[in-house]
Amino acid sequence: EIVLTQSPATLSLSPGERATLSCRASQSVSSYLAWYQQKPGQAPRLLIYDASNRATGIPARFSGSGSGTDFTLTISSLEPEDFAVYYCQQRSNWRTFGPGTKVDIK
Amino acid sequence: QLQLQESGPGLVKPSETLSLTCTVSGGSISSSSYYWGWIRQPPGKGLEWIGSIYYSGSTYYNPSLKSRVTISVDTSKNQFSLKLSSVTAADTAVYYCASEATVIEYFDYWGQGTLVTVSS
Fold first, then answer.
1. How many CA atoms, within 13 angstroms, populate the side-chain half-sphere of residue A58?
2. CA nearest to A4, candidates A93, A76, A75, A85
3. Out of A1, A91, A96, whose CB is closest to B106?
């Protein structure tokens, strides 16, 4: 099983600041990694797929990078609606999710 | 645009079988463009993929749950279903159904989720 580790567990930032979230895989997943956003009481929403492709309707302030075992989700300038939990997910070997990073308001 | 809706009992007794159904609208479950999956989330915790099914009936299960999981498709009702046997309190979670577009193979449309509590 491929284990995904996310850091930090919590990121406290102010609106307008840049957010950098990390996801590390226990073995290479090539570029087969996605990022999801989840708000309280809601289902996750797909943001980024295959490491760097924005899903339909996702604002340009969200970007993804990385390959192999190290990946990054960047939110260039946080909007009030971006405060949420973010999960990474790999599809290289079955499907596994990371434990999540909570982005909260400082 | 696809819409998915989970349905089923909100309370299941320990050792019994959890059964949920996902109704798909806005598209055909027989389409070759999608896999159909189940994901769960224990209260306050992260996401766990349970398994997925293709319209042909091919199934893919999380190895850690494989011995207890069955996912099936009912094309006549445009639904797919989850059965999880021998449940314990650890199976208490919000259960989501989701579509996985074959062109990207990630979960692009999700149901709202349904909480299933395992308790006597």
1. 21
2. A93
3. A91
